[in-house]
TrEMBL record:
GO biological process: one example: GMP salvage
Subcellular location, principal: cytoplasm
CC terms in the record's Gene Ontology section: cytosol
GO molecular function, one term: magnesium ion binding
Entries under InterPro entries matching the protein: HGPRT (IPR050408), Hxn_phspho_trans (IPR005904), PRTase-like (IPR029057), PRTase_dom (IPR000836)
Record localization: Cytoplasm
Family label: Belongs to the purine/pyrimidine phosphoribosyltransferase family.
Lineage of origin: Eukaryota, Viridiplantae, Streptophyta, Embryophyta, Tracheophyta
Domain Phosphoribosyltransferase: 13-174
One protein family per Pfam: Pribosyltran
EC class of the enzyme, as a word: transferase
Pathway stated in the Swiss-Prot or TrEMBL entry: Purine metabolism; IMP biosynthesis via salvage pathway; IMP from hypoxanthine: step 1/1
Cofactor(s) demanded: Mg(2+)
Protein name according to UniProt: Hypoxanthine phosphoribosyltransferase
Amino acid sequence: MGTLDDNIESVLYSSEEISRRVSELASQITSDLDNNNTNNTESSPPVVVVGVATGAFLFLADLVRNIKLPITVDFIRAESYGSGTVSSGDPRISSDLKMDILGKHVILVEDIVDTGNTLSCLIAHLKSKGASSISVCTLLDKPERRKVNFELVGEGKYYCGFECPDYFVVGYGLDLAELYRNLPYVGVLKPEMYK
Ligand code: 5GP
Ligand code: MG
Ligand code: MG
């Protein structure tokens, strides 16, 4: 039986590079939260880190371990991709938050921002629930592919791990038809895998 690696054409971001960058992002977030007068206390932590399922699960896990302040964690699920590599362009929220985010500072954690459709849909949704600020922390961004611009809310900031070339990438949470999420790095599949 072959391994997952056999289907990878090239590695874009190694596990070591990702780990280094994730620590940097977490330090930046920690110091921004600390300076931002978010009044963070353990009894009522006003910061909610919201992972966009499923793609952000590994990134979120590594990121929050390096944020040195009390935070809470929740998940939301948005679906725009079918099982292929082309977005439907009409994202839907298929599973909502468990927590009440009224008056909270939300950090939305995404695997990748591509057209921007998913993010703008999620931000509008979280804003309607009364978040007092919305930041976005994405592992990857493909700025060339942007179709929709999104606006952060309140004092929200934009954090990005890597600007990614316009390939369909998998690994470290990102899938093709639910496979490859468990690769510890981000890579590009061999062309025959897309057929
Ligand atoms: P957008 O709505 O910005 O077009 O797409 C966002 C979602 O599409 C991402 O959260 C991700 O699930 C999926 N996506 C976009 N580009 C890629 C890619 O290169 N690889 C994978 N695996 N998913 C992608
Ligand atoms: Mg995603
Ligand atoms: Mg996907």
